[in-house]
Backbone:
């Protein structure tokens, strides 16, 4: 075994995604338990159908505000006492909102699970939402929005969403809401949103770690079976694009030494049957370090520290976007190289070597993704949110390996829309306006943040 | 919880740590080289990090860009990172792919230079220049991580200068510099190798010996200048930056005991009492009660030589001035220094640190990295198993002693960021963009 001979792999050891048990409480709440016993630790994750797409019109940001306010007080403890109690148990319980769901999560040592869970449950079902806490969280969101104005990456992400979605789409505005929409939110609106959406039938409780399913079911039933309420109507979002022609927008950021580029369009819903071929196609285009856009923009040209592409998977179509940051003076060549890679993806089949790189990577990293209780819980949440089949993770690698070069070409044709590509550039107008106008991508729309 | 550990040393000086865990069929390979920006010579700031990029450009038996591709094709994840005093490289792969990860690491440790070309160096210089623009120059507050070490470690201390480096120095780096740096620092006796996860130790040892065994020992590296520093700055240091930021932010640093010192654990607990999670003093008082801060945290740099720094990082709420924010932070610091902390606060901090530690140990890559850390800094990876005991041994008196001796006006460094537009309006009497000492 000298270094001049490349090693070849031995045969792989089998891996199975952790087995999980599904239980249904009398109140309609679903419970998923995945026992893993390597360390004395447990993650508890409640997934509630109370994400951004469930917001009443004109209340953009209410989902996130409600989720963030959950741990600000319960009938037993005010916010400060609750924080103190949980942190003495070595954990924190916190809420967060996504587009398709809200979640409440904690990771706790096994020995503290029962004590911590009592309060986890209170946070979920009986938050008191004190007015001062609501007002403080609103002010924190306003501070966050101010910060984003000077942070080019997040600014580019937000400006891209705003540019590509139709006026009537919730996806056009940030999940956390705008300065205007958040300003109008009130405690009453938070209470009403919680009452409408946080119901047992709309909730799945996921418990992963050093536990057994029967004991978890007993613990959860003892704490939460008295929680009852009506069924919640399913929420969905308008995902229409703003336009179907190529177009380009420049967002001014004076003296920026780099241009933040976002190139793409409205993508594909998570449950689309082409999910696997799209995932492989994206890996080859910009999902891996050795992907086409990264090797081109970074390694061949040195334009950037990194370039990547992604489909943002949601129940309805989230954005498909290629993103990078390049020195201002190479903005136009970087856009041109990116578009060249997009067209090549659509016009010719990928090589067998590119295909095998993507499939072997996605198959191989699969067990590496699920080392922690938190990651396994998140995977089970994905199953729940998108209604994927129970054997999704058992067949994942097989289905990924079955994708062919032709499947990838078909996916590129069907799901990368060269003719309706949208470009957003956040950068220094003085340095890049003229070259962008000369790019031939239609009239340049120039706006301030 | 005890992490199983087995160590041995090859005759060329490479210290090897094995830690078996067969939960999942994956294995982590992790190498730390005991070299960082501290080892750069004058006029070559940023070189250690640029060099890290060159290690992904191929070696004698590996083509350019093949390193990433081979690991990803094997179904693995990988990266590298550079810090003030070390550089690490790591892969997590399916366990049947251990050999390829070891082979790649050995090939670049044994024979990097045949693959180095001027063109690769030029490209990576451009990539790193863009990394600098992305992470420092075009990022609000992005210069803090070169300004704060510069303010708190006096020139010519090895931690004083910029890790990412200046464009000018990056431009000056040559292939000759690459060859010298490689010969001096990228040697088996200046590195540690850790394998953690699902592997057979007998087989793995054979692989390590055959791939790494023939790599010659180095000729020794130039000693770093004396790193020791007085316990305090000897005054209050200040620097004010007018930058493209929306809200004022203050980085307040205290010189603190080096990692590994008993007093380090007291400092770390003090930091957690001040800024870890919502129940910490600064978050409770500044964010929740007084609503003067949008966000506040505290952390240590974890440097094991000379002196560490404990840093409080507070961002103002809209409408709150830097002076108001600073007064509120200082009030809490003084309260801790004068009145001390409670047993309950120490318990809360140690409980949170304990859960985080166990949660992080679920990942093979994280276990390997921590084992390499203790192997590099102290020659003893098994110190990982003492960490929680050392935290649990911290008493109220230890924290109070740290607070009383290190949080005073004689040991504070303020790096303050102000929105550029508000420069005139906010107007502080401090010299803009310069640092000074007031006793």
Residues:
């Amino acid at each position: 075994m000298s270094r001049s001979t490349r090693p070849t792999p031995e045969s792989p050891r089998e891996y199975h995604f952790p087995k999980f048990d599904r239980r249904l409480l009398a109140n309609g709440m679903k419970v998923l338990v995945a026992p893993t016993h390597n360390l004395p630790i447990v993650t508890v994750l409640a997934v509630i159908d109370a994400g951004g797409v469930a917001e009443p019109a004109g209340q953009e940001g209410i989902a996130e505000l409600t989720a963030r306010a959950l741990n600000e007080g319960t009938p037993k403890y005010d916010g400060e006492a609750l924080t103190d109690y949980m942190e003495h148990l070595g954990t924190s319980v916190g809420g967060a909102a996504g587009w398709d769901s809200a979640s409440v999560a904690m990771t706790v040592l096994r020995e503290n699970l029962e004590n911590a869970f009592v309060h986890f449950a209170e946070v979920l079902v009986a938050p008191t939402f004190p007015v001062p806490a609501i007002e403080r969280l609103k002010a924190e969101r306003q501070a966050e929005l101010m910060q984003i104005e000077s942070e080019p990456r997040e600014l580019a992400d937000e400006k891209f969403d705003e540019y590509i979605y139709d006026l009537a789409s919730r996806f056009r505005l940030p999940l956390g809401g705008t300065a205007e929409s958040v300003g109008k939110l009130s405690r009453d609106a938070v209470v009403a949103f919680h009452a409408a959406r946080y119901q047992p039938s709309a909730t799945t409780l996921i418990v992963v770690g050093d536990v057994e399913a029967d004991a978890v079911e007993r613990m959860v039933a003892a704490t939460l079976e008295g929680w009852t309420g009506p069924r919640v109507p399913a929420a969905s979002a308008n995902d229409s694009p703003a336009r179907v022609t190529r177009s380009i927008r420049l967002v001014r950021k004076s003296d920026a030494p780099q241009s933040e580029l976002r190139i793409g369009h409205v993508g594909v819903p998570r449950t689309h049957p082409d999910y696997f071929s799209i995932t492989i196609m994206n890996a080859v285009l910009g999902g891996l370090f050795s992907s086409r856009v990264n090797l081109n923009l970074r390694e061949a040209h040195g334009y950037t520290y990194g370039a990547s592409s992604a489909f943002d998977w949601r129940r309805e179509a989230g954005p498909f976007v290629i993103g990078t940051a390049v020195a201002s003076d190479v903005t136009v060549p970087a856009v041109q190289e990116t578009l060249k890679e997009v067209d090549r993806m659509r016009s010719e089949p990928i090589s067998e070597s590119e295909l095998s790189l993507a499939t072997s990577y996605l198959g191989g990293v699969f067990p590496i993704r699920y080392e922690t209780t938190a990651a396994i819980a998140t995977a089970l949440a994905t199953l729940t949110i998108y209604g994927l089949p129970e054997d999704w993770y058992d067949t994942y690698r097989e289905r990924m390996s079955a994708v062919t070069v032709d499947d990838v070409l078909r996916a590129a044709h069907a799901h990368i829309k060269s003719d309706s590509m949208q470009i957003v550039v956040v950068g220094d107008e003085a340095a890049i306006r003229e070259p962008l106008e000369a790019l031939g991508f239609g009239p340049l729309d120039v706006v301030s943040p | 919880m005890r992490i199983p550990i087995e160590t041995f040393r090859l005759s060329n000086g490479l210290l090897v740590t094995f830690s078996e865990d067969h939960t999942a069929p994956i294995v982590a390979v992790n190498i730390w080289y005991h070299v960082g920006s501290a080892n750069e010579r004058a006029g070559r700031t940023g070189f250690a990090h640029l060099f890290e990029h060159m290690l992904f450009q191929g070696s004698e038996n590996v083509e350019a860009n093949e390193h990433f591709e081979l690991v990803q094709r094997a179904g693995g994840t990988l990266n590298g990172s550079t810090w003030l005093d070390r550089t690490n490289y790591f892969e997590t792969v399916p366990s049947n792919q251990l050999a390829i990860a070891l082979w790649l690491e050995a090939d670049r440790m044994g024979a990097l230079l045949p693959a180095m070309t001027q063109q690769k160096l030029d490209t990576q210089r451009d990539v790193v220049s863009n990394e600098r623009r992305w992470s420092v120059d075009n990022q609000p507050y992005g210069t803090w991580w070169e300004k704060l070490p510069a303010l708190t470690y006096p020139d010519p201390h090895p931690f004083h200068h910029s890790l990412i480096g200046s464009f000018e120095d990056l431009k000056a780096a040559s292939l000759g510099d690459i060859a010298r740096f490689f010969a001096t620092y990228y040697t088996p006796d200046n590195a540690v190798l850790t394998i953690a996860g699902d592997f057979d130790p007998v087989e793995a040892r054979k692989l390590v010996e055959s791939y790494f065994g023939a790599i010659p020992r180095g000729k020794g590296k130039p000693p770093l200048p004396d790193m020791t520093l007085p316990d305090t700055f000897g005054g209050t240091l200040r620097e004010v930056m007018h930058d493209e930021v929306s809200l004022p932010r203050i980085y307040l640093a205290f010189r603190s005991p080096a990692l590994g010192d008993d007093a380090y654990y007291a400092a770390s607990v003090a930091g957690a009492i001040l800024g870890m999670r919502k129940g910490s003093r600064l978050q409770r008082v500044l964010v929740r009660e007084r609503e003067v801060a949008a966000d506040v945290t505290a952390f240590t740099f974890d440097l094991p030589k000379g002196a560490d720094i404990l840093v409080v990082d507070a961002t103002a709420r809209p409408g709150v001035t830097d002076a108001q924010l600073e007064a509120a932070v200082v009030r809490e610091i003084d309260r801790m220094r004068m009145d001390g902390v409670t047993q309950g606060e120490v318990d809360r901090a140690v409980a949170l640190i304990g859960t985080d530690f166990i949660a992080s140990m679920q990942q093979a890559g994280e276990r390997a990295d921590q084992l390499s850390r203790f192997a590099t800094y102290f020659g003893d990876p098994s110190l990982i198993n003492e960490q929680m005991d050392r935290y649990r041994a911290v008493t109220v008196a230890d924290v109070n002693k740290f607070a009383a001796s290190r949080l005073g006006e004689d040991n504070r460094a303020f790096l303050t960021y102000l929105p550029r537009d508000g420069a005139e309006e906010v107007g502080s009497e401090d010299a803009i963009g310069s640092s000074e000492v007031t006793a």
User: Anything to note?
Assistant: DSSP finds 16 helices and twelve strands in chain B. Chain B has two domains: 6-212, 235-438. Chain B touches chain A through 83 residues (CB under 8 Å). Residues 27 and 98 of chain B are 7 Å apart (CA to CA).
